[in-house]
Amino acid sequence: MPIYEYQCGKCGKEFECLVFGGETPKGCPACHHKNVKRMMSACGFKSKGGGGETVRSSAGSSCGSCKASSCSSCGS
Fold it and tell me: Which fold has domain 3-62?
């Protein structure tokens, strides 16, 4: 049950959606428009860096210091 990132074709809102099988989201959570496009997602994992330091997959992006559990919750 992967979580995919989508973007609304009408308002441009980016959001995440848990997808079962070949399903697609019912629509945009902001404007409820049905035209949504699946986006390429960054891999969400944690790994041990050198010296036992935990490195988040978003460490190289502007969200590297973000503590949110979901990218859609911070509004970036």
Answer: Rubrerythrin, domain 2 (2.20.28)
Which of 1, 68, 15 lies closest to 58, judged by CA? Answer: 68
Digit-coded pLDDT (tens) for 6-49: 999 999 999 999 888 778 888 999 999 999 999 986 666 666 66
What is the rounded CA–CA span in Å between residue 67 and residue 29? 23
Q: How many CB atoms are closer than 10 A to CB 28?
A: 21
- Would the pTM of this model clear 0.85, i.e. be above it? no
What amino acid is encoded at 1 in this protein?
Answer: M
Q: How many CB atoms lie within 10 A of CB 26?
A: 10
Residue 37 burial (10 A CB sphere; 0-12, 13-18, 19+): exposed
Supply 56's token pair.
Answer: 């988040």
